[in-house]
């Protein structure tokens, strides 16, 4: 919801050039990492036991979570401080 409201606001204000900034790029990377985490642990992925074993799904989750934390460090200075404190 956070990202969707930003995108709607950028469309209304005609500020879509913000996707090219560090904040916009880290937000896109964060969305991709969150989506990867959700899909890897979804019931669809669980049904694909032959292709996606639990260990593979767990590794995917941790890698995408690490990517999300890294993207959060580059999002805004306040996000960086909060992420470093709680990581």
What does this structure look like?
This protein is mainly alpha-helical. The chain has one domain (20-86). The protein contains 5 helices and no strands. It has helices at residues 2-13, 22-40, 43-47, 54-73, 77-86. The longest helix is centred in the C-terminal third of the chain and has 20 residues, at 54-73.
Question: How is this fold's topology laid out?
Answer:
Blueprint: H1 2-13, H2 22-40, H3 43-47, H4 54-73, H5 77-86
Helix pairs in contact: 2-4
Taken from the alpha-carbon principal axes, the silhouette is flat
Tally of helical runs? 5
- One letter per element, helices H and strands E, the order comes to HHHHH
Mean pLDDT: 84
Strand proportion, as a percent range, falls in under 5%
Q: Using only CA atoms, what is the Rg?
A: 15 Å
The residue fraction in helices comes out at over 70%
Structural class by sheet pairing and helices:
mainly alpha
Distance between the termini: 23 Å
| Extended strand count | 0
Low-confidence stretches: none
- How many individual domains? 1
Q: Give a quick account of the main beta sheet: strands, pairing sense, barrel closure.
A: none
Short descriptors:
87 residues, single chain, mainly alpha, flat
């Amino acid at each position: 919801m956070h990202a969707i409201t930003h995108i709607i606001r950028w469309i209304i204000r005609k500020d879509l050039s913000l996707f090219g900034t560090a904040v916009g790029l880290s937000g896109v990377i964060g969305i991709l990492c969150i989506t990867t985490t959700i899909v890897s642990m979804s019931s669809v992925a669980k049904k694909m036991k032959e292709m996606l074993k639990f260990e593979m799904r767990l590794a995917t989750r941790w890698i995408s979570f690490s990517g999300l934390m890294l993207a959060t460090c580059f999002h805004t200075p306040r996000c960086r401080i909060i992420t470093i404190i709680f990581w």
